[in-house]
Fold these 4 entries.
Entry 1:
Amino acid sequence: MKTKKDIAAGSAPLHCWDIYMYAYQRRMQLSADLTMFKNIQAQYKWSTTPVSPGYALLWLNRVVIITNPDLQVIYATENIYTLTGYKPGEVIGNRPSIFQGRDTTPESRNIIRTAVDRKLPFETVITNYKKDGTRYECHVDGYPIFNKDGNLVNFMALENKVA
């Protein structure tokens, strides 16, 4: 049982309203992300998606980053903040290498570079860094995305921290 001292120290009991608000905010965030995916898909006339962004967000709880063919980020889901400490607007216009640093190995970079150059999907674990400099291991599934004419229009990366 919580005492007045516990409550004053900030360890108040969790209320159902707290759970509801967290779930509501998460649903609103997912809705905004899914709307953006639909807009990007229509704008770039994707022929198909290798994996549903909705599935990646809802069931896998992964960060989704979309770049143009030059690897400049054009979209990042809101949950990127939890993974990297960067807000989506801070990464848009940058390359994903913004997350790399001293301990990012040439081997993991080469896996990504080779797949991107060949326009092939890839999967790897890479050492990345949060905005505050904290190092973490990031599992990345990357996919080229082609339009209905068969031209490369985007890359999609699904990312999460390796436990």
Entry 2:
Amino acid sequence: MTRETLLPRLAAHVLEHGIAGLSLRPLAMAAGTSDRMLLYHFGTKQRLVAELLEYMAAGYEVALDTVLPPGRAASRAACLESVAAATRGAAFGPYLVLWWQIVAGAAQGEATYSAAAGAIMDQLLGWLEQHLPADDPDPGRAARHMLTLIEGAQMLDAVGRPQIADAALAAARSAL
């Protein structure tokens, strides 16, 4: 086995079981190897988690590309609507559970989670910028605004307040 063959198996396990309280033995079992072999391939548990989160962030971006129309959106509002609808849907549920666990780790000052959260946010900002209309006057600003709205909507969904998120997104769409 190689890192490249281990990462998809580890990612599937983490999407199913989460990352909170992650230990090497269950990961190794899910990957069909031993905890010693995981350490052989990744060096440390911290490095394994970091590489796993990088791998999963790339998978999230691929998942977005799969469910959203290709190319640039016709407008900021269309981009916001399609991304919010897709990421708030059931298909992204496992990613969101994992995301909030990463955010919790970052909030507790865990360096691996902070680094992963920052990298994921940078990646999503870049993805949003690339999907805004080609003639957008300020895609960086628009992407930051939309990312804040989308993340807020996802958080409100997670705490059982989707109606607040729906109202805020509707107001934002009309203002964009």
Entry 3:
Amino acid sequence: MVTAAGVIAALLLVLLCVFQAALASGAPVGHYAWGGQHRVLPTNLRIGSGVTVLIYLALAVVALGAAGVIAWSPPGALVWAVFGLLALGIVMNAISRSKPERMVMTPFVTVLAACFLILALG
């Protein structure tokens, strides 16, 4: 179960990387992120999306490491911290003013947080 959770988390994070890269490139899907106030993100949020790609890639490595898929094993406190941030992300997406963000990102982040909870308990 832990291995599956790690692989699923990594795949979801890669999907988020593709999404954030699209946002950073100017794709008109901004209503699904960053509060949903811009279809095409302004420069500062596009830069934020670019940085987010790097963060999500690092989190994918954490997931794979915690699942034992790669040789590196992250500290347990790091896995718990990621779970905590994702749990906060559930709340933030759920209270977004953007209905598309609430409807798509809230369940997406919920599944991702559940995977990290399994990894943290694992």
Entry 4:
Amino acid sequence: MLSIGVAPAATFTAQRSILLAVIGCFGGPGHDGEGLESICGVGYSPDTPTPGVVIAPMSRLISVGAVGLQVVNALGNGALADVYVRPSFDGVLETLVATAVVPGAAAPFPPNGVFAAAELGSPAAGGVRASVVPGPMTQEIVLGDAMDNGGVRGTDFANGRNVALVLTGPAPGSASGWWNDFSVVALDTDPELSD
């Protein structure tokens, strides 16, 4: 059994959305191999599972002239992460959205308003790159895949709206072939505003 402890009532009544994400590995027969700490977390073995829960507040504080971007670190390995977003326009470089996001955190607060909606172009054709800190492990995915994972539409990337980019699975750049590979889930932080 896993206990998440006692949370004050204000945790659930403040102007924010709460994200619950299961992390780590449950272990058991057949769930072993090399390099599993980068996937399941420090100390993992089939006999010492590492399941946990991330409870992260997604901000509803908005910037009227920008799309607010926030990153939630729900990686199973407990690594810090840097996250970059690349607009869909040819030749436009990626921009750092959040740096050294600790496991279980939602950062930055308030959300990063570095992009106006028009500067992102077509969000589905953009990119998200996550890097483990410190270390060379990095991986980029198409922002459209993250949108599909979370049911977010291009119209959700609007000025005065926030989108959370949730990092899930093993560390970015980990060997594939595990149950769930590294992924990003884009979520609307205030679904009441959606059509």
